[in-house]
Structure formats: structure tokens, C-alpha cells
Amino acid sequence: MDYSQFLAMKQEIGLLVVFLLVFLYDTFMPKKAQNSLSAITCIFFGLFTLAGFCPCLSYDANAFSGMYETSAVIVAIKNILNVGVLIVLIQSIKWANSESQIMRRGEFYELLLVTLFGMYLMISARHFLLFVIGLEAASLPLAAMVAFDKKQYESHEAAVKYILTAVFSSAIFLMGLSFVYGLAGTLYFDQLAFAVAIEGSKSVMLIIALIFVIAGIGFKLSLVPFHLWTADVYQGAPTSVTAYLSVISKGAAAFAFFVVMAQVFGAVYSQVWEWMLYALIVLTITIGNLFALRQRNMKRFLAFSSISQAGYIMLGVIANTTGGLGSLMYYILVYIFSNLAAFGVVAAIENATGKVSMDDYNGLYKTNPRLSFAMMLAMFSLAGIPPFAGFFSKFFIFTSAIEQGSIAIYVLVLIALINTIPSLYYYLLVVKAMFINENETPIATFKSSVSERLGLWICVAGIILLGIVSCFYSSLLELTNAM
Amino acid sequence: MDQITSVLILALPLCMFLLLGVFGNKMSHKMAGILGTLGMGVTLILAYSTAFTYFFSGSELFIDAAGNRLQSVVFDHTWLAFTDNLVIKLGFLLDPISAMMLVVITTISFMVHLYSLGYMHGETGFQRYYAFLSLFSFSMLGLVVATNIFQMYIFWELVGASSYLLIGFYYTKPSAVSASKKAFIVTRFADLGFLVGILILSFYTNTFDFVSMTSNPQNVLASTGGAMFMGGSVLTWALVLIFMGGMGKSAMMPLHIWLPDAMEGPTPVSALIHAATMVVAGVFLVARMFPVYLMEVTALEIVTWVGALTALYAAIVACTQVDIKRVLAFSTISQIAFMMVALGVARDTIHEGVGYMASMFHLFTHAMFKALLFLGAGALIHAVHSNDYTSMGGLRKYMPITHITFLIGCLAIAGIPPFAGFFSKDEILVAAFENSPLWGIWMTAVAGLTAFYMFRLYYRIFWWNEPDYEHHGHVPHDAPWTMTLPLIILAAVSCVAGFIPFGELVSWNREAYHIHLNIPVAATSVIVAVCAIALATVMYRKENSLPDKVANSVKGLWTAAYNRFYFDELYLFITHKIIFNLVSRPIAWFDRHIIDGSMDMFATLAHKASGAIKGLQSGNIQSYVLIYLMGALLIGVVTVVCVVIL
Asked: Between helices B324-345 and B354-384, what is the axis angle to 10°?
């Protein structure tokens, strides 16, 4: 075996090094030094994130006879995820150092890094075996993270729901894969693409395999009707874990989904999966919105909002072009900043007061103007109000879908556009609660910790700058177009 | 020109705005004022060096072997690429008029920054005031260096917004609030025309870029393919609509109504925005697009008519106003109209397009002496605490510096040699005569009126009868040095600016040419001006009953002019009586019942639907998994049926 091919996996190796350092620090350092574990993890991971932007990583290579691939685009999506993880790590410092978590925070960081490793594999995999390993590595440790609040009943319930649904969806996914293997006799993406093209769109077996594969990844993306676990899990899990689930896990899955669909099943795009995805997108955006309308618990509310956001992300997949991939990556980037800002505020308030109901947010502006302001920006960005980043990401993903050109897609974009109206309504409900609604006993003024503020400042800067500084989108588009 | 300097010219005021806007409340007044003034001072130096390099370095970037100046795009950054055709760029275009505007804007802005240290001393919101001044300077600089119409439009709106903020600076005063609202609405209304014009033009030419449009105006004409719309060519429509944006900003009739009210803002702001810089944006816009305007003479004729009517109207109204700032406001409208007329009568075939040069020359000199007059008025108001000349009089003894500098300003605007206004106005009159004797005589008459109302104002303030100042508690005196220094500098500039060989620097096709005085035209205009001043002297030097007699003898005209020919009342009538009743009310009804009604219906439906499907989210994991599987199978089966069987 040629061991030099491991060198293609520089980012995975880097991540493993970070993981090992954190693990060793956690295990062997004296108790006194343990207090700085959170900071150490953030610093290590921050350095690793920075190193990811080194241009020397951006080259095309593959390993293990084509099972693993890296390229400039793949490095870029990993960097985007890294930035998101870094923000999650910074935001979670206060929670991880709280009385109830202090014994276990080492595991939190280790599990988190392991799932990220799994996502890396999913993104880079060009063989379904490696893909499944990645998928599982990204799913199973998450169940442990969801169950992190040991003393909370909801946390347990959420973990059980999560693991059961995950196992079920894995089974469905593997069944789909076995059909695929049965058809083609291989699991390499490039060889499968040939086999799919030969098989053609009239094959019942292929269609069933396809819907099972979509359902398997659709679980991670919480596409309707594979989404039902989402709200319960988001609500029950610790807020930092929810934040991680809703942006990082979703972002990685969206990218991997695009790769699988375009590279493996590209040949049956217009006959088969365009229509499957079409139905899923309409369902996801609409049902996500309809449920979000009536939520009063902030975490549940954000769960449904993130379901409908996933529907918008899928517009980049249905475009099935390099431009679509560029818009999808940009959408993920913007979504990371906007959603993490929202979760950052929710977490800060929960850590300080334990309140998560929207009614508790009434009159927040009077007592905590800065937090309200950050939340308002997050809501504006998620709703797609210009000039914030969310407007541009929606605009570009709509444009890339429309460029595909068929009337049906125009109708789809129209449906998505109409759906922005109820979404505007429920996002603004939060803003209204904070700024307009009166409250006799508003949440008292509190000072959030340095780490929480730092995380929010980063997010706010991203929301404001990612849109109006145009080089982010154009450089992503340049990368994907060069593919 | 290196890019860093040009970026800094824009970035410095912007940074000052952010700095003072965000952290201003934590600074002392003094600190904020000095910071803002220093920032502007550095911008001034950078702008001067840029303009100097452009005009005098002789670099082949800026001037070719034949002595023609070139348009130099220092940088042009693609900001937003929405689609392949819809690309918004931000850049820095250096050519004679933008270099000249850099000098004008930074000079006046710096003077106003300095002056405001004294004038705004102790006002609440002092830091906010300086932040807004910086924002305005940034927007105006961005406007003049724009490389494309879209960038200009963005900065155009920013200028409008910062003007709104500054007019409404005293936001506790209802009159200031309504004035700022009025200014914003009127100019926004005009900008609607601007935007439509931009869209028409770019639809045909597929470009927003100034350089490519103005270097080959024939292509612009050809690209429209002779399309017609309602009796005019499409290009004429586009240009007239773009000019409409200019009419709003430059307060041309009938969109002038906001400018007199805008005097509610602090006086230095009036000097900066409503006399020297923002209000000439419309003139600048037409000048920027001038080669394209030359393709459609009809559009230029409209510009001339609007300008000439406005000039006459504003000059007549200025003769009757009592509030000194309003006199200056109408005088500004009238003088900007002069510039518009100069552009309107300019033709490439007549006298090397002298009107264009004259217009820019007058823009330059007018900025200097009108800022001087406004800052002088500010000093007077500061001393007397009133805007009315009725509470002034005989002030020459108490405020000698203000008196001398104000007199220089009046002489300059009246067109008395050797002050600056004489030279630029002379060129405008030459251009008007060369186009048609009608415009020549018309504008000479307006110039006479200008001399009359300015000296009427001068005599009423500094001579006439002295009210009992001691009775009012304090005797007026000259302002502190921060306020008088700008007056002295601007007065000095107003004395010498006329001798600048402007034709060598700025011309419509950027070829240098030599200005020479046209003796008959110059002599006529000077004689008219001197007669008008003599008349003003007779009427207003000492308190007498002559003005009242004159006013009574033409009572109808006088009252109408005093009420600004009822333009505001006309607007109120149209908006309140006609638009509100006939248009707004039915629309409001439709909105309330039909639109809101159907929206309410949708909202109810959405809530009902939301309630109907809430059973899906039962919390029961078995049902979750069942729906998961059934959903997948359903989609699979439907696809099989549709693709394979059908």
C-alpha cells in the first residue's frame, strides 16, 4: 500500500491532530489546568481553521484508488464548516463551563470533533462505503451529544428519538445502496454514473433505490416528510448542540447531497430526481413554514425555521449546475452566520435566565438592547431582508435555480417566493416581541459573558458584511465554475 | 494617480462618520469637532494633490500629446454581479469636472467643519452633527467620482439621505422636521424619474458606464434604433427623465419648493449642502452626460427653458423676501438655473461649446461666494439671534469683518469686475447670446435683478436704520476666529477665482482653449449691474418710504412674489384636495378591504392549515417513522407510475 496517499487527506489529518490534542489535554492534564480546556480547544481549532485557508491545500487529488477526493471546492466547503464550528465552540464556552457540564465538557468537544470528521469524509467520499462510514460517524456521536443534559428528561427523550430515527434512516439508506450495488456491481461514484446512464430512467429498481438514498440523506437535512424528529430533538438538546445540528450538520449534508445527486445520478436528473426533489422542496418549505407559524418555544421555532431554510438550500441542488453549487455553498455560509446569531442569543438568554419561550422575549429591547439588536439582525437575515446577507443568498440561489430554465422551475421559485411571506411574518413576530410588546416582568438586564459576546459580534459582522462585500460570493462561484 | 490616495479620499470621511457615529457619544464636543475637522483637512490635502496631479503633472495618463485631457479610471471594482448584464461597479473616475468638484467639495466642506466649531458650540448633538457632515462629504465625493450611472444613483440617494438628516438636525422643532420631510419627498419624487431614465438608457445601451457612453455618444443614439415613444425619441425621454432627477436635487422649477424650507437646518449646513455642493449635483449630472445630451437637442432645449424660467422666477421672489436665508436660498436657485441655462444653450458647433465651460466655471465661483454669503449670514444670525433683516440694520459698525466679506460676496454675485462672479457670468451670457439673442437678453435681465436683490439685502443688513441693540440686552459683535477665518479665506478666493484660466482646464471635449472677454457683452452686463446696484442704493441705503411706495404701486405682483407665486399652496391643493381625495382614498379603501381582506383570508387559511397538520407532529416516534417510510414509498410509487408506466 502506498502510504503517501494519506497526504491527500491533509485536512482530515489536521482535524485528527486537534482531536488528539484535546483528548490528551483532557485526559492527562492536572485538574487545575482543566479549567482552560474550552479556551485551548477554541485556540487549537481556530489555528486549524486558519491553516485551512492556506492556498497550498487547494489542489485536486484523490486517494485509495478514487474512494477519496479533494479539490479547491471541497477545501472551501470544509473551511466554511470550520468557521461555523469555531463560532459554535466559542458560543458554547459558557455552557460547557457551567456547573452541571464541567465534568463532561471534554467529551462534548471530542464528540463534536469526531462528528466533524465524519462530515469531512461524507464530503470527500467518492465511494459509497466511505460515504456511509462518514454518515454514521457524523450521526451516532450526535445522539450522545443530544443526551448531554443528563438530568434533563427532554434531553434523554430527544436522544432516543434521534438515535431511533437515525438508525431507521440508515437502514433505508443502506437498502437503497444495496439496490444500487445490485444494479451496477460497484460503489464508486464515477462507475455508478455510467451504470445509471445505461440503466436509464425507466428502471423501477433505480427509482426505488434513488428515493431510498434521498430519504437517507433527507433525514440529515430534515426534509419533509423525513423531518419529524427535528422539532423534538432541537427542543430537547442543549442549545449549543442544537445550533451545531441545525447549521453544521445540515450544511455538510447539503453539500454531500449535491455531489451524490449530480455525480452519481446526474444521468436521470430531468426524468426522475428533479421531480422527487421538486415535491420535497415544496413540501419542506411550505410545511416548515406552516409549523413555524404557531411555535412559542424559541428552539422549536428555530427548528421549523431551519426546516424551511433547508428547502431553500435544496434549490441549489435542483439547479444541478456549478452555479447552483456556488449559490448553495454561499447560502450555507450565510445561513451559518444568521442562524448561529439567533442561537447565540437564545443560548445567552437561556444560560442567564433559563427562559426559552417567545413570550419571555417581550420587552427584551428595554432591558437588553444589544442582544435584541443581534437577534433582530439574525431574523432580518433569515427572512431575507436587504441589505443583509440573507437577502443576497436567497437572491443568488433563486437566480441559479431559474437559470436552469424550465417553466416548472419558475413555478417552484414562485412557490418559494410566496413562502417567504409567512416566513417574514414569523421572523418579525420575534422582532415585534422584543421591540414592541409590553411586558411587566421582562427578562432582567444581564451581562453576557465575553465568549457569548465575541460569538455574536462575529455573527453580526458576517450578517452585515457577507452580502455587501461581494467578493465572498464571486470567489465561491469562481471556484465552482472552475470545477 | 495611485489608487491608495483615491480610496483614501472616499474612505476617510466614511471612517469619520462611523467613528463619530458609533463612538461620538463617548467623546467630548471638542474632541469630536477636532477629529471631524482634522479628517476633513486630510481629505482636503489628498483631494488637492489629486486635482493638482491631474491638471498639472502632464502625465500621459491625464493628457495626450495634442493637449487634450483624458478621462482616467483610477479603479473600477465590480461590487455586485447579479447577472452577466446587471453588474454594479464602484470606481473612481478622474476627469476635469470630477477633479474640479473634488476641490470644491473638500474646500467648502473643510471651511464648514471649521466654521461649525464656533457656530455649533454647545449645541446638543454636536457629535451627531459632525458625523452627518462626514457622511455627507463621503456621499458627495462618491457621487462626483462615479464611473457609472448606478454608482452615481447610489451616492445620489445617500446625499439625499444625509441632507434629510442635516435639515432635520433640530428634530425637536416641528418646522425643521416638516422641512426635512418635504425635501426628502420632493427629491425622491424627482429621483423616480432619474431611475426610470437610467433603466431606459441602460436597456438600450446595455451599459451604465459613463466613459463608454460619453466617448461614443453616436453609439448610444444608434443603440436606441430610432425608437419613438409618445412623440419623442426614446433617447430624449431617457435624458429628460434623468434631467428630472437633476431638477429635484438642483431645485429647478417646479420642484424647487423644498430648498427655501431646507433653510431650517443649521446655517453652515445650508452653506455646504444647499448652496455649494449638493444642489449643483443636477448640473453636474447633465454635464457628466453632456455628449449624450448633444445627440438630442430637444432635451437640451428643455434644459434651457426650465433653467431660464427658474432663474427669472427665483430672482423675482428673492426681491421680496424678508428672511435673509430665504433670500440667499432663492438666489441659489436662480444661480443654479444660470448654470443649467449655460449647459442648455451650449452646442459643440457654437464657439467650442463655451456654455459647458461657463457652466462649470460658474459652478466653481458660485460655490465659493455663495458659501461665503451663507457663512456670513450665519455669523449675522449668530450675533442677532434672528433670521429677519428687520431686526438687523447698521451692522457695519459692529461687525466689520462680516461686513467686508459679505460685501465682497455681494459684489461677486452681482458680477462686478474683478470679482469671481463677473468672469463666469460673462461667459454664460456670451454662450446665451451665441445661441439666441432671446436668452442673452433674458439672462442679462436676470443678472440685473440679481445685483438688485443682493444689494437690497446688503443695505438692509448693514445700513438702513439701526434698531436699538442695547435695548435687547447685548450688542452684536464679530464671531470667534473659527468663524471669521473661513469668511476671510472664502472672500479672498472670491476676489481672485475669476482669474483662473478655466478654459484651459475644463471644456466639454477636454480640449484646452483660451477664454477671452467679449467686450460688448461684458460692458452691457456691468452697466446693468451697476444701475441695479444704484437703484438698490437709492431705495435701501437709508430708512425711507420709497420701498413701500414701490411695493404698493405693483401690489399684486409684490404680494404674489412675496408668497412665492403660491407654488406651495398649489402643491398643497393638488396633494390634499385632488390626489388625496381622488386617488389616495379609493386606493386606501381598496387596500383596507380588498388587499387586507384577502391577506387576512390567507393568514386565516395558513393558520387553519397549520392547525390541521399539527397532528403529524405527535411526539410519537412510531408514527414519525411510519410517516417517514410512507412518504418515501409514496414519492417512489408516484415517480414509478409517472416515469415508467405512463
From this structure: 180
Residue B400 has pLDDT above 70, yes or no: yes
Grid coordinates of A215:
430519504
Question: Rounded to whole angstroms, how far apart are CA atoms B318 and B447?
Answer: 13
CB-CB contact of B331 with B318 (8 Å): yes
CB-CB contact of B93 with B211 (8 Å): yes
The β-bridge partners of B209 are: B148
Q: What angle do CA A203, A205, A209 make, to 5 degrees?
A: 120
By the CB < 8 Å criterion, does A290 face chain B? yes
CB contacts of B636 in chain A (<8 Å) are 207-208, 210-212
pLDDT, position A280: 94
Q: How far apart are the C-alpha atoms of A448 and A274, rounded to whole Å?
A: 46
pTM: 0.78
DSSP 8-state code for residue B323:
B
Please measure the distance between the N-terminal and C-terminal CA atoms of chain A and give it in whole angstroms: 29
Is the CB of residue A280 less than 8 Å away from at least one CB of chain B?
yes
Burial of B87 (0-12, 13-18, 19+ CB in 10 A): middle
A30-76 pLDDT tens trace: 888 888 899 999 999 999 999 999 888 888 888 888 899 999 999 99
Cβ B343 vs Cβ B239: under 8 Å: no
**Which residue of chain B comes nearest to A232, CA vs CA?**
B619
> What would the pLDDT profile of A188-237 be if each residue is shown by its tens digit?
999 999 999 998 888 899 999 999 999 999 999 999 889 999 999 999 99
Cα A102 to the chain's mean position, in Å?
Answer: 26
The residue written with cell numbers 416528510 in the block is: A225
Q: How many Å apart are CA B463 and CA B537, to the nearest integer?
A: 10
Q: Is the pLDDT of residue B471 over 70?
A: no
Residue B80 has pLDDT above 80, yes or no: no
CA nearest to B207, candidates B365, B378, B89? B89
How far is B464 from A124, CA to CA, in rounded Å? 89
CB under 8 Å to A100, separation ≥6 — which residues?
Answer: A149, A150, A151
Give the distance from residue B611's alpha carbon to the nearest chain A alpha carbon, in angstroms.
Answer: 8
**Spatial distance between the Cα atoms of B456 and B321, rounded to a whole number of angstroms:** 10
> Got the DSSP string for A301-350?
HHHHHHHHHHHHHHHHHHH-SHHHHHHHHHHHHHHHHHHHHHHHHHHHHH
The 3-class SS string of B440-464 reads HHHHHHHHHHHHHHHHHHHHHHHCC
Give the integer Cα–Cα distance in Å for A338 and B470. Answer: 65
Question: In B, residues 43-82, which contact A (CB 8 Å cutoff)?
Answer: 78-82
Count CB pairs under 8 A between chains A and B: 97
DSSP B507-565: -TTSB-------HHHHHHHHHHHHHHHHHHHHHHSS--SHHHHHHHHTHHHHHHHHTGG
Question: Grid coordinates representing A191?
Answer: 462507475
Q: What is the C-alpha end-to-end distance of chain B, expressed in Å?
A: 69
Looking at the predicted structure, is the pLDDT value of residue B1 above 60?
A: no
In this prediction, residue B415 has a pLDDT band, given cuts at 50, 70 and 90, of confident
ipTM reported for the complex, 2 dp? 0.90
Task: Find the domain containing A80 and state its range.
Answer: 3-481
Residue B208: strand, helix, or coil = coil
With an 8 Å Cβ cutoff, are A165 and B629 in contact?
no
Q: Which residues of B touch A207 (CB under 8 A)?
A: 636, 639-640, 643-644
- Structural domain total, chain A: 1
Is-cis flag, bond preceding B418, omega within 30?
Answer: yes
What pLDDT was estimated at residue B86?
Answer: 73
- Residues of chain A predicted below pLDDT 50: none
